[in-house]
TrEMBL record, chains A, B, C:
Official protein name in the record: Voltage-dependent anion channel
Transmembrane annotation, as ranges: 195-215, 235-259, 271-289, 301-318, 339-356, 362-380, 392-411, 423-442, 449-470, 482-506
Family: Belongs to the SLAC1 S-type anion channel family.
Entry membrane topology: Multi-pass membrane protein
Organism this protein belongs to: Helianthus annuus (Common sunflower)
GO biological process, one term: intracellular monoatomic ion homeostasis
Keywords, sorted A to Z: Cell membrane, Ion transport, Membrane, Transmembrane, Transmembrane helix, Transport
Record keyword Membrane present: yes
Pfam family, one: SLAC1
Subcellular location: Cell membrane; Endomembrane system
Amino acid sequence: MENDKGSPEAPIRSPGSDQIVGFDDGVMKQSGSSFQMMVPNGNDVGSPIDIPSHQTTQSVSISIPQSPLDAKRVFFKDKDSPARNLNFGCEIDETGPEKTPDRLTTPVKNPRMDAMKDNRYNSFKTWSGQLERQLSVLRGKSLPRNDPEINPPQNIQGESLSADRYFDALQGPELETLRPSEEIMLPEDKKWPFLLRYPISSFGICLGVSSQAILWKSASTAWTHFIHISLRVNYILWCISILLFVVVASTYLLKVIFYFEAVRREYYHPIRVNFFFAPWIALLFLAIGIPQDLHAHLPHWLWYVLMTPILCLELKIYGQWMSGGQRRLSKVANPSNHLAVVGNFVGALLGASMGLKEGPIFFFAVGLAHYTVLFVTLYQRLPTNETLPKELHPVFFLFVAAPSVASMAWAKINGSFDYGSRLAYFIALFLYFSLVVRVNFFRGFKFSLAWWAYTFPMTGAAIATIRYSIEVPNIVTKGLSLTLAIAATVTVTGLLITTIVHAFVLRDLFPNDIGIAISGQKPKAQRKWYRRNTCGSAKDIEHQVNSGEKVVQVPVISSGLGVAVRVV
Amino acid sequence: MENDKGSPEAPIRSPGSDQIVGFDDGVMKQSGSSFQMMVPNGNDVGSPIDIPSHQTTQSVSISIPQSPLDAKRVFFKDKDSPARNLNFGCEIDETGPEKTPDRLTTPVKNPRMDAMKDNRYNSFKTWSGQLERQLSVLRGKSLPRNDPEINPPQNIQGESLSADRYFDALQGPELETLRPSEEIMLPEDKKWPFLLRYPISSFGICLGVSSQAILWKSASTAWTHFIHISLRVNYILWCISILLFVVVASTYLLKVIFYFEAVRREYYHPIRVNFFFAPWIALLFLAIGIPQDLHAHLPHWLWYVLMTPILCLELKIYGQWMSGGQRRLSKVANPSNHLAVVGNFVGALLGASMGLKEGPIFFFAVGLAHYTVLFVTLYQRLPTNETLPKELHPVFFLFVAAPSVASMAWAKINGSFDYGSRLAYFIALFLYFSLVVRVNFFRGFKFSLAWWAYTFPMTGAAIATIRYSIEVPNIVTKGLSLTLAIAATVTVTGLLITTIVHAFVLRDLFPNDIGIAISGQKPKAQRKWYRRNTCGSAKDIEHQVNSGEKVVQVPVISSGLGVAVRVV
Amino acid sequence: MENDKGSPEAPIRSPGSDQIVGFDDGVMKQSGSSFQMMVPNGNDVGSPIDIPSHQTTQSVSISIPQSPLDAKRVFFKDKDSPARNLNFGCEIDETGPEKTPDRLTTPVKNPRMDAMKDNRYNSFKTWSGQLERQLSVLRGKSLPRNDPEINPPQNIQGESLSADRYFDALQGPELETLRPSEEIMLPEDKKWPFLLRYPISSFGICLGVSSQAILWKSASTAWTHFIHISLRVNYILWCISILLFVVVASTYLLKVIFYFEAVRREYYHPIRVNFFFAPWIALLFLAIGIPQDLHAHLPHWLWYVLMTPILCLELKIYGQWMSGGQRRLSKVANPSNHLAVVGNFVGALLGASMGLKEGPIFFFAVGLAHYTVLFVTLYQRLPTNETLPKELHPVFFLFVAAPSVASMAWAKINGSFDYGSRLAYFIALFLYFSLVVRVNFFRGFKFSLAWWAYTFPMTGAAIATIRYSIEVPNIVTKGLSLTLAIAATVTVTGLLITTIVHAFVLRDLFPNDIGIAISGQKPKAQRKWYRRNTCGSAKDIEHQVNSGEKVVQVPVISSGLGVAVRVV
């Protein structure tokens, strides 16, 4: 694989890389590698046909060093990321040019290719874009031939990324940012098709707005002798919520139809999966917030219809927590998991409001058990919970959601705002306080659509406070309910403005959704070290081991003996 | 033991072994070691009397290399596993024959020795078999002289294996399989005496059958207007249960009498210890399932008698969880711990049925506190919980047991199936669903007696559902109760058939109980690395560290000096 | 600082130190270091004025080796502990004199300097002692000039030690003992000023005594028909408690005034911070235990005044647990955290006794949520909980405190000792039993003032049992309440005697408070290894790695080259 041109002085390890001294035998085992010869001067002698094609086959370039002295620095780097479109690999002598020239890694831009035809996105399309092509045929358009170049070999269908891959490749509290060492499967330098950039977290907007509709519905009935809030506010907000939901949902439906593989990758994303609860919770919110003059009684079947997908998702997600593969709770615990729990309480609240009895208690019980597990786990902050943000973040407001809604749900189930409801409400209130006093939680965080989901708990707390102020009517509770209601509305309004600015002014509301485009495999050098690693702190050690390692190159004068020892 | 064929090319380190090149000073410090000289040609000059005797004394063979050059590569390997029957040690150059010849490690079979006289089992016998010998004397048999060969020096009495030893040496969800690198103290190639193979988990059968008696007792009273179930079913099942319990218990009692050391090792087994709750829970089941026409009122003292051992065991086991030596919960957490908790609820149920008040609440409280701890811990799946099976396994059904029984117990205590009972019941129901939808949980698992203990939760859930269907009588609840009852009965029947097949056809119902026969110490090379290790992930690192280690053999040209450095 | 006596045999690595051979580049980057040249003959050319002064500037001595051959073995040792009073650093050849002569490291004793003037303590004083100097001026005393030597540059103000520092530098269940490798900032060989040695845990005495006042108040009202206990006992104990609190609190107030930096360091101490709840809990105890003839009704504002600091502390401490920096719960979990939770229940009990409703439920809810988290976490004994004592320790009695008080608080809130109260009470009782049966928990532990805080739970359990025996009056409960009351009183009496002996006979009640005097940075060699480490087990590995390391000194014959490689 590599020609050591007989240089006897070749050092056995190059500084700065992680691989162990010696020929990485992994390289030799790679079947189907296309070897591409390069002279150090950079003349790419690879076949030009490679450029537009998508190769999963690994290509390893071997540079023939010009002088025997250079040979000392030859080492192998095996990059088996299938996402790269070109021949790459084996950069020889990285001490030379710092980076492989981009013309080698980025495809030659074909001006005729527009984004929809750019077959780099094909792997994320439903049936690799065949559906789209059929639709094109129906519209009478001519179809490019289904040649190998267009149907990329590295079809990701059927391949489900492991949770570890997401944790390894991404960072940030929402696992949305690529780690420096990673590569993505889609072009980084241009905007992807809209649907590919449209995340499931968009349903957060529906959560935020429809919970406001509930808030002002509650306020208008509760504060009759205090402040007069017209029922019209609820009506308008509810109509906006309905409209918003239709728009958001139908757009996402298009994504499901055209980019099913991207949806599947969102579903496997350890954080993003929790947002799959958002559409159903938003529907529950719409049902709870329905204006009084619109409904006499919501039909019972509606509740069952809405709760079925939530139950199915829960059986899936909670089962993953417990049954313990890679998605076990000690690994994926993140405040966004609250989204997976709060649906139980919202459902219980709606069901109890409708007059159901056993169903709401069922979901309340399931929610209680799993909220306890989640609450303890998140409070502990296990060392394995890598994704938990170091500092406070709007996501922490999700802590407030479940107990707020639980207190109202229990009050509905039980018929009165009793001790159980109060316990839940006061826990929510304390957590709210606990977050509010940490004033620096908005600092240094990039706005993202997911924030919408993080604000509905504020509204939930405000609604619960209104409910509590009905039970304990005095100046403090009324003042508190007013304050929280205003805070929630101001936050939602602020977020709305931010969203509009991002959508129409900065035009970056939907940036490239890096989280779904990570490559299936890690760059080789790191995989060697991190492969079976689960414990966060353990990773820290390794990090130290790596960073602390030193190549002690002992200068040998008399005997010609070179001992290269990696001291850890 | 192994022949260094004088080959000068013998590498100084054999692949796959972990020890450091050089003289392991631990070897020299071993007091009482008998050094046995070997010439490299492999003539074992050890005394032939060694062969049948059991030596705990460590024997280290030193090979005298043939050339002074070889001397540099001599290294020691200290295997202090007391189970080996022969002199061994110091394998030089393991790259020779792949495996140590069996004739050296297995004793020469003495056809006169039968299993009961085979003094290799003596160390597991009560007082090292002295009780048995005394009984033999009573029966007038001649007794072999109590010479050193028969009374093995490596008496394991008083030696309590650490929990770490069990985790290190065993694997599998029930810690019943030996890891490849480990050795056991008893002969692997033949069947041990029956009592040694008879595990405490046999009481699981009693749990399974006696819970069926309760199920059909409940069904016969609940379904009077639905399906007529004769009380005779309960009666028959209860009688079978009693009979079964007597058989199982008296057999185990024999084990306690004759193989107390084996019982003690079961008690120290981190998973098996939970099964020590099984006899008492089975007795509680028998008391609950007693046919109506047999008892007017069970006497109160019976409850106190039954709960005393449970309380004592709990004080011991829960104390171990909390007080944090090696058996701390983050280490030993396993679904089988539910057995240690469910007794509280079963006891509370029986006590409340008897009309007691404070005692049942006491056990209910204790159970609730520890169930919460256990539920959260198991749901989190801490990285330290090594023994938790990766995939689903019947053991997970134990999750369902505690909340099922708790709901009934609370209903009895409280006098009505109120919200508390429903919360517990619905949690059980959800967990049941959650397990049922994962259909692949029976795949690839070897049947074991412990499965019986894993099925009584199904029966418990069925009974709780019957209780619930009395409270909420409609077609859904009645159908559900019928379904669950049938599922439980079918499962128990299936297990019964499997057990009978294993017992009488395959004759492997009681395989050698590897779990109790592990040696007290790890093979030396590994112990050095794993000794104080508790964190599973940390172990992973070490594993990588180990596997990543390489012997850098520096080619020395001028000085003729070979420096072998283990670089980690 | 130390003389290399020119011995050519100096090994390149001193035993017991961890640093890697070679030039530690960290040394050279230290800005502000004063380089002090030494000739190998040991003439210290450092200015004598250095000796009494406190220098934060790091001084690195470089020895000029006598022969070029020696140059290979020169290495640096960077000791950046700011506590040392003298120039030091770069000890070359530590195999010379075993210990650096004391005359160099300890200041020349100035008999005129008394402890209050000893400016080594200045850094712990409020505004570095400026307050004190101002007070001196007010008293008309002459003031030493504020020259650099007196105002030490290593002012620790504003520097908040990380939690990791405390864990790294200290050991023991209360993190009060210095690890062998660490250094402290204050002189170890003499007694510090009293206020510096006076810890916040002194409030534990108030907890112990004032809870006794409550106990005998309860007993005198409960046991009227059983044993007659005069109300005078309560009266006397309460007065003692008040007096004690005034003394303890005013003394600590002096510490706050004069040694605010020491208080701040106690506040950052991961274990000690929990004792900051003690003063307020003691005040609550005083309010609860107030003799009946003294108060008609305590005013409501008193409750709000007392609960405000508790709420503020909780917002801070619980927020640290959750928001996850270094003080996250999985890291700092320790039974002493119960002190941070029990205040909620004590406050709820007092508030409910006063007739308040919502406030007590609020604190009860907050306490319940966080007690659940804490209970589960402590029971699990995560591998990251380094500070949890391996064996049982009086601190474990804090487990009993929260459920005991919670049961009484709930009974007050609810108006009756119902199921909720009983569940809490029985949990407390079981935990109490569980601790009592482990009889060896007093063995091998050094008495400390903190023990007082560990005994009030016994009193709490006794009071709860008295409350329970009112509810369920029979011989068992009355006997139990009497037994527990006696046990608590005997323990408190015994502790009182021990304390008096330590205070007046042994005169070591307040030893030097090592915990607050740790240096801000680890000795360099270790910091490299432990820096970002959080997982306890990971630390274990490192420990092994460290202890397993060997210096392989390759004897080089032909070339005369000594290669020292630290093989890990």
